[in-house]
Amino acid sequence: MTDQPYTADPPELRRSLGVLDGVAIAASSTAATTSIGIGLGVTAGVVGLHLPAVMLLAFLPVLGIAGAYSRLNRVEPNAGNGYVWVGRSLSPWLGFMVGWVNIVATVAFLAYTTAVTGSALLQLAGEAGLHRVGGLALDPGSTAQTTAVGIVALAAVTLTAVTGIRTAARLQTGLLVFEYVVLLGFCGYGIVTGPHPFRLSWFDPFAIPSATALAQGLLLSVFCYWGFEAAFSVNEEVREPRDASRAGLITLVTMLGLFLLGSVAFQRVLSEKELAGHGAEGLAFFGDRLAAQPWAALPLVALMFSAVASLQAGVIPTARGMFAMSRDRTLGPVWSRVSARYGTPAAGTLLIGALATAVAALALVIPRLADMIMATVNAVGIVVALSYALTALAAAARFRTLLREDWRQGVRAVVLPTLSALALLGLGGYLGWSFYTSADHFEVSADNGWFLLATPLAMIASGFVAAGWAKYVRRSPYFRTGEGTDADAPQLLTTPN
Fold it and tell me: 385 with 219: CB under 8 angstroms?
């Protein structure tokens, strides 16, 4: 490996990806099968039988965020994406915080997905008739067992990510094809044959029980869409930087279609109690209601593939983000070591896998897998909303002169990202206040509001501490030169493709 993090000529990643590779990475990171199999049940526990409504509503601000990512990527493709863009257009402190919370949130997500992967493997073992190993009864709902099995899978996909981004993309493409064939087949069959009648009220957000439920449901849905921006984390490894923008937008629109299909199918087949009550085993239960074995096991295999691909897709963009931060000396030099053999940030990739393993082990303090999932997605939903909102505001600040030069471009580049940012900030703030007022004591439990609020606040606070260390101890030039100008951005943005 080479180690040249602080030289005048910073290390470069190898460009080898096309737009379809970017789609594979972003789609795997978004993990539609995992989101449908698990996220829909969690969200239904909050909003009831109104999953299509919240999925559609959440898509609108996320689409505005995607437009901001795409425009910023056109003028400045960078593996650090939001970290660089927010630092240049708003503030280096806010830019660092965006990079930091994305890292922390992804590590937390990897810990959660590690347990999900282990749960899917244990469920498959049960379907195959393997219920005990030695004297140990296998339990897909046990956080300890699912984490132990999932850590083995995490180690395997981390090693694959080290060997090259193209290898990882090819693996994920194969997994995605199988997932989507199974998902489309079972969901389509469920829509046609489900015993529960289709209702237009499923698409009515005003029928959701309360404003708090709507806010929490929307942030949980934002969490489901989270991951489309993984396409922008490899924008220094695609042959044409605009391929990253195309991949991100293609992935986002695909996810909307899959989530609407899945939410309608689940509500046609399952009652509200069944939908909300099966947590990590929701997709397997859905499959059992539609088919006999061995066909009923196919959705579970698809969930396992999705979780495995999501593990790898979580490792890849995080390592790239930390690579970009290390080039700026906001993180240590180990993160920007590029393997001479593979052209990837190999050392950083291995360290991300190790960190996720450590967090997954620490998560054992929450005794049940469902509690771990709920606590993680709520925390990640808030910090992801904050990161998205700041990136959208960075785009609005950078392209603000378009409002005077070309009002149509200005609306798309400034007004829509601003509205999307305000919507996500409002949702996050309202949900945080709801968590605060919902409890009178602190307890490490997924239904304790203070715990749910403390988790994202700890992620954000740790970001400012790390930023202070980077500025005053590492003396990173990022905090002197992070501020940028939008003088050239409108001209670049309006240049014909």
Answer: yes
